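Loading example: each entry is read as two labelled lines plus one structure line.
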Amino acid sequence: MADVSITGKRGAVDQVIGGDQRRISALTERLRTGKLQLHEWETQMQAEIKALHVAVGTVAHGGQPNMGPREYGALGRALRDEYAYLRRFAIDIAAGVQPLNGILGTRASLYVEAARATFWRETTRVQRAQGARRARWVLSAADHCTGCVAVAALGFQPLDSLPPIGSQDCRSRCRCDLEYQQA
Amino acid sequence: MTDDELYVAALVTKADVARAVALWHELAPRWARALVDGAANG
């Protein structure tokens, strides 16, 4: 059995997210240039988003052998929310509220970045099952928002009271980590 | 898409799992075997 730290998994997840950004960017460029219809783009975005979130969720749980209906069910619930956001995005495009400009790609990339929050949510679920009761917010080396700074300043907090990664001002762009502590 | 349709679309099937595994092998092959195929330390 491989023994990979959360930090190691996080690095691997970043690598997959980076690669998927390029796929989403190419997909969205095809929409922008008229090579894809909006409904085709939305369907393909759904597939990309689902594969990515299942991929990072699987790693958070330690691999496929640890995945079952409960784990996939939790990912499905999160995906439903992502699909609802994507639906609104598509409606904005159809209505012209979201023009087919550079912002389109930036907004599309947020769906990929959101997978990082899925990784941390599932990691927290695993850590709780393994006895962790507290966690602290660890600021990323990169820029971070004032919300992240404030949460990090709290130090170790009960798991249930610590806000999830992706909940602060930087939203799905958040690069901060969590560090867990047993009771 | 209605709420019910969103729910159904978001269900994770075996085909979705296969796509997720393929994504790892394509984008992070060095990690795929340790993190996805086998059980890594949770």
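The interface with chain B takes residues 1-5, 9, 12, 15-16, 18-20, 46-47, 50-52, 54-55, 58-59, 61-67, 72-73, 75-77, 79-80, 82-84, 87, 126, 130 of chain A (CB under 8 Å).
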